[in-house]
């Protein structure tokens, strides 16, 4: 028996050594050694090494044709077995251009010509992608080949060949009757698009020879073959595409056309090809990529000839640009006077259009201190000097801030708003620059206000002093006939009033306006919420009644005397206090509902109620003070003016004082709520005490039950000598049971 085992082990070791020799022979390309070893049946032909490779894949990868032939002679070889990386023999041979090996593999009946490897690519895709025409021809001779089978992204062999410009492979594939020349992958890429994008003009020509080729198919990014060729500057491809009827010249790819894309990239020849093509819509109905007009793109890329031709074609449009610059803005900033003249000749162009940064062309020129450009722009009657940037700055204010005095001297003759805005901002230095350049100091804005009005209205005292010293009209009136002095009096600015009076200002009065539709002429009364009314008696009578009245009441008429005004005040105060009491009562109702829901389980309720009680106490004190003040005022008023009307006023005061009863009711309600809350809290505490007592009783029972067991365990644990002879474990139970009985008897006697 031992001899047989020894023989078996020797045989296994021998077989392993032979298998190892075969791997070395295949790797070294030793055909004779490989053939000799492959005759043995114990050779594992489909074995994989530590890298997951099979013998066949190793030979294919190294290009050992003779070794591959030897391996294929074995009837048990699996020609479609993948290695650990998903590689297949035929796919590797086709991808690496091993024509002879591919031919040997294709002779096998069970070879899978449409299998995908770990990269999800078929043998035909790999051969076509790498331009191995002979292998592609071998594969196409197979009847079971699928010429349109793509990878996982949908890219077919024709797409791969077109992308890499393999003309022979493309020609072979197009010769198949079942080829799909317009097959699209997940990204929508077609063979024509890939060839056009890469500039493979011969491949593009082969594809365009087919009548069924689609010229304007869009990718997932809305690009067409013409757009890709123009964007990448491929002149020959662009010519080929433009020679075909039905080509779309105006495809919109995220706001770009083929022409705008070529201009944006600076491709002059391609741009000219597209510009002169019939059917090209030069006016784009929308914003172009990065906000440039076609003209801006041409100017920005230095394509002056094309820019001039575009200007002649009048293609510029006035669209709001999300990002970028208008042609006029670009030319104004760069002092391109010739281009500015050409642009201004376009009637459809708005010369005041703001760019993406909110700047106008004139403000750009003013900032750059370009006198020639500013003068040229001002020659156009369409230029609005007062049109400011998005931040409110005008060209004149920008020139003043940058101290471009020459530009300031040009702009001051036509500007009518900058001085007002600078005064409003308090920019004294820029104001002085404008005045030094003879700006009209008395220019008025849209409401007729002069710069002095604006200085008073915005509390710019230093600027007002400077304006007056420069000769500002101190008595200028706006559209409402208000002078600076009147404005200063209305706004209670004494320093301005004194300053204006020093310069002989006159006419300090105020005018009030009321809504006519709200007047009730029969009663001589106006109701206007939030308005204060003031009036004065024109002529005093024999009595010493009140002369001036000022009322901030919601509803107010002209009272006969001070008593009637005082009564209106008391009635209004009583109404406000009652309204407050109603709101407080509603608040306490909500507190009561919350109290019933919580059942005394919210500790903060007591503090909230105590806070409310404090508020009521403070309100009662405030009300008492108001009532006392009203009584004292009524007494003093009666002593001074008499007339017997003080008694009527006391009736209003007593009604006002009755508010104390409402506050008393609210106080009692709060006390009741506090008592309820204390009761709920007491009940909850009692429940907690009862629950705690029950828990303690249960704990006592548990202690009595486990006490004997714990005592027995501790006894055995301390007396180690008892356990020396390994006594029976039932002794522990007997001892524990005895203690439990004794404990129970003792507890019963104690309980009795």
Automatic annotation (TrEMBL):
Membrane topology according to the record: Multi-pass membrane protein
Keywords: ANK repeat, Membrane, Repeat, Transmembrane, Transmembrane helix
Keyword Transit peptide listed: no
Subcellular location(s) of the protein: Membrane
InterPro entries: Ankyrin_rpt (IPR002110), Ankyrin_rpt-contain_sf (IPR036770), CorA_TM1_TM2 (IPR045863), MgTranspt_CorA/ZnTranspt_ZntB (IPR002523)
Major localization listed first in the record, in broad terms: membrane
ANK repeats: 187-210, 447-479
GO molecular function, one term: metal ion transmembrane transporter activity
Segments crossing the lipid bilayer: 699-719, 731-750
Protein name, as recorded: Uncharacterized protein
Organism: Fusarium oxysporum f. sp. cubense
């Amino acid at each position: 028996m031992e001899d047989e085992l020894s023989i078996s082990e020797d045989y296994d070791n021998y077989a392993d050594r032979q298998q190892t020799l075969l791997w070395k022979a295949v790797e070294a390309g030793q055909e004779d050694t490989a053939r000799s070893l492959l005759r043995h049946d114990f050779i594992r032909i489909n074995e994989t090494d530590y890298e997951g490779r099979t013998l066949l894949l190793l030979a294919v990868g190294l290009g050992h044709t003779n070794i591959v032939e030897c391996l294929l002679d074995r009837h048990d070889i699996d020609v479609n077995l993948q290695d650990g990386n998903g590689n297949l023999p035929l796919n590797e041979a086709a991808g690496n251009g091993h024509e002879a090996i591919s031919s040997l593999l294709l002779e096998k009946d069970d070879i899978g010509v449409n299998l995908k490897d770990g990269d999800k690519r078929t043998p035909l895709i790999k051969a076509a992608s790498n331009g191995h025409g002979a292998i592609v021809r071998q594969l196409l001779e197979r009847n079971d080949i699928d010429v349109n089978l793509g990878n996982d992204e949908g890219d077919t062999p024709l797409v791969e060949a077109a992308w890499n410009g393999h003309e022979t492979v493309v020609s072979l594939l197009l010769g198949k009757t079942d080829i799909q020349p317009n097959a699209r992958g997940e990204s929508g890429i077609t063979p024509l698009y890939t060839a056009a994008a890469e500039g493979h003009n011969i491949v593009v020509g082969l594809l365009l020879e087919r009548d069924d080729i689609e010229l304007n198919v869009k990718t997932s990014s809305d690009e067409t073959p013409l757009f890709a060729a123009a964007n990448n500057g491929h002149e020959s491809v662009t010519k080929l595409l433009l020679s075909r009827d039905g080509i779309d010249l105006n495809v919109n790819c995220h706001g770009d056309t083929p022409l705008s894309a070529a201009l944006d990239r600076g491709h002059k020849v391609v741009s000219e090809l597209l510009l002169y093509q019939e059917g090209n819509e030069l006016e784009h109905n929308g914003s172009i990529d990065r906000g440039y007009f076609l003209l801006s793109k041409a100017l920005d890329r230095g394509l002056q000839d094309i820019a001039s031709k575009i200007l002649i074609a009048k293609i510029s449009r006035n669209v709001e640009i999300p990002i970028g610059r208008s042609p006029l803005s670009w030319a104004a900033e760069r002092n391109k006077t010739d281009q500015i003249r050409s642009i201004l000749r376009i009637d459809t162009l708005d010369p005041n259009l703001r760019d993406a940064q909110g700047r106008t062309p004139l403000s750009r020129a003013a900032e750059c201190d370009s006198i020639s450009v500013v003068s040229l722009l001002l020659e156009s009657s369409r230029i609005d000097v007062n049109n400011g940037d998005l931040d409110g700055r005008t060209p004149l204010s920008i020139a003043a801030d940058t101290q471009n005095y020459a530009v300031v001297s040009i702009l001051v003759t036509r500007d009518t708003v900058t001085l007002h805005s600078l005064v409003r901002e308090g920019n004294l230095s820029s104001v002085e620059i404008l005045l030094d350049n003879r700006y009209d100091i008395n220019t008025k804005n849209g409401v007729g206000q002069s710069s002095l009005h604006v200085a008073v209205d915005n509390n710019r005292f230093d600027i007002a002093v400077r304006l007056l010293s420069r000769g500002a009209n101190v008595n200028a009136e706006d559209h409402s006939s208000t002078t600076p002095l009147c404005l200063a009096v209305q706004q209670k600015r004494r320093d301005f009033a004194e300053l204006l009076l020093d310069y002989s200002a006159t006419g300090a009065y105020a005018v009030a306006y009321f809504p006519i539709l709200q007047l009730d002429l029969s009663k001589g009364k106006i109701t206007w919420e939030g308005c204060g009314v003031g009036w004065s008696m024109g002529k005093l009578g024999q009595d010493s009644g009140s002369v001036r009245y000022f009322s901030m009441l919601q509803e107010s008429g002209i009272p006969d005397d001070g008593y009637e005004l005082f009564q209106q005040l008391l009635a209004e105060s009583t109404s406000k206090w009652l309204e407050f009491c109603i709101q407080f009562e509603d608040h306490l109702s909500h507190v009561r509902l919350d109290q019933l829901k919580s059942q005394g389980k919210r500790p903060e309720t007591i503090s909230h109620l105590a806070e409310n009680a404090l508020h009521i106490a403070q309100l009662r004190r405030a009300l008492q003070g108001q009532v006392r003040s009203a009584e004292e005022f009524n007494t003093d008023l009666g002593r001074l003016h008499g007339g017997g009307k003080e008694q009527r006023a006391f009736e209003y005061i007593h009604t006002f004082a009755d508010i104390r009863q409402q506050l008393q009711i609210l106080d009692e309600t709060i006390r009741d709520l506090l008592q309820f809350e204390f009761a709920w809290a007491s009940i909850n505490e009692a429940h907690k005490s009862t629950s705690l007592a029950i828990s303690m009783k249960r704990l006592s029972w548990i202690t009595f039950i486990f006490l004997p067991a714990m005592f027995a365990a501790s006894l055995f644990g301390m007396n180690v000598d008892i356990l020396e002879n390994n006594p029976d474990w039932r002794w522990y139970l007997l001892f524990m049971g005895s203690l439990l009985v004794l404990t129970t008897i003792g507890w019963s006697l104690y309980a009795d």
